[in-house]
Amino acid sequence: MIGIAALFLLSWGLFGEGLEEVWNVEKLAGYFEQAKSWAWLLGILLLLVDLLLPIPGTIVMSALGVVYGFWIGGLIATIGSMLAGILGYGVGRFFDEKFAKRWLGEKDFEKGRSLFDKSGAWVVAVSRALPILPEVLACMAGLLRMPFGKFVIALACGSIPMGFLFAWIGAIGRDQPAWGLAFSLGVPAVLWGAAALMRRR
């Protein structure tokens, strides 16, 4: 996980400062307004590219809220976040189990698989509110063979509140409030708990 995180941090080190200077909610919303009917697709593509480049996903989600409003902007942001997570999972799953065991060591591979089987869903859900970790954990979930259905449910539990929260922030034109972060951390955990209870029943 540290190795994968280091790759994302290297990307931030190389490009992050320049992107932060160029991108903010107002500028990105202006670009989306110019794109008109294609802005939704551009927003989703930017969230997907976040897997490789230091794209500030929360700014993209907020800009979608500015242009499309809470409901449509939130839906587009959620779809983009979900697709980005699934793409990361796919990247991890692309490498076969033999490669993963050779890279991580068979003992650590089994430990990681056990961790993701027992607690990975909570981690995936809550990580959507944090920088860098969503991409890292999505890749690790695929690499360690977390069941895809379980991953998608956990991903939705984190992506839905994040997408609509930041679309709402963009729609009302406010900066991120302190309680917004608490909301984005707490709601995914609550949603996953409810989903886990439903699965058991």
What can you tell me about this protein's structure?
This protein is mainly alpha-helical. The chain has one domain. The chain has 10 helices and no strands. It has helices spanning 2-22, 25-35, 39-49, 57-94, 97-104, 106-118, 120-127, 133-143, 148-172, 178-200. The longest helix has 38 residues, at 57-94. The chain is globular. The two termini are 33 Å apart.
Number of strands: 0
Mean pLDDT: 79
* Beta-strand percent range: under 5%
Number of discrete helical segments = 10
- N- to C-terminal distance: 33 Å
Name the helicity range: over 70%
> Could you say which structural class the secondary elements and strand pairing correspond to?
mainly alpha
Shape: globular
For the report, how would you describe the main beta sheet?
Answer: none
Along the chain, the helix and strand elements come as: HHHHHHHHHH
